[in-house]
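Final report, Chapter 2: Outcomes

The project's central promise was a pipeline that accepts a single protein chain and returns its three-dimensional structure in a standardized token representation, suitable for archiving and comparison. That pipeline is now operational. To close this chapter, we reproduce one record exactly as it appears in the project archive, with the input sequence first and the structure output second.
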Amino acid sequence: SLPQVGEVSLRGPTKTSVILHNGLQVDLRVLPPERYGSLLQYFTGSKAHNVALRGLAQSQGLSLSEYGFKRGEEEIICAEEGEVYGALGLPWIPPELREDRGEIEAAQGGALPELIELADIQGDLHIHTDWSDGAVSLAQMAEAARARGYRYAVISDHSHGLGVAGGLTAERLREQRAEIDRLNEGFSDLRLLQGAEVEIKADGSLDFPDEVLAELDVVIASLHSGLRQERERITARLISVTRNPHVDIIGHPLGRIIGQREESAVDIDAVLEVAAETGTIMEVNAIPARLDLDDVHIRRAVEMGVKLAINSDAHNVGSLVAMAYGVATARRGWAEARDVVNTLPLDELLRLVAKE
């Protein structure tokens, strides 16, 4: 009787499968509440994680399914997910880590990360306004950042080299600085910082000279062109700007647009190695179509000691909420609050980007 359902493909006492009019299959499982924990754990997955859990259960003389555990004729049922892991001698493993990428071994060794939470974020370091290609004013973005409880926000409009975005010249940057200073005079609970998303040109140089970069609080260097260059050339461009002492953050390093554009051929491990040497921060761009860095490379960065910045890259007020997607992706990459620079208080962040 549900209007969304086009076809019932399977019907049974505990399971029904339907095909929606849009082609999606939906499975409905009905079990008693006391079995909910094992059911939730099983269907959360991943498949690889569940296979590993079943192997661990078998090594302890147990069998594990969505219905619970069995040891011979004895049944162990689990109302909560934590009971499933507890029966195997493990602490609860956060769903984002369940990929059979070492999380079970980490749990056994008491070494699971304390994953970052959205509430840990103190500010957004990548926000655009109508000074370049954003949709709203500086004042509107500032008020939206305050409404989210942020302590700081970095206005990082495009540099002039990205002509399609109405990027700023050095003179326009200085005019913008005056407006930022004026707005800051009216705030006691938010500090606006001036940054710029500076174009990395085809030869690896930046859109602004060092003396202009030095005037900014935060410099994000990003690729928007030449994304299909061969591996050596595009890697060299990113390494070059990662070594620039005026560059604080590498924006959306992989250059992907999910469903539209594959990531560039960049040797991201080589870039991360340089970032680990220079203290350059890698962005986790939270736009849902980017999520760049992705979870695999976030974990690699964390392992190498490279700091991350989770940024919304918001071009309008509504897009500030994308921060949640960036945090979720960082959690999949085993990131803790200490790995992410915009969990820091303002004074510590400023010391970090000043390379003090």
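Archive annotation: The mean pLDDT is 96.
This record, like all others produced under the grant, will remain available to the consortium after the project formally closes.
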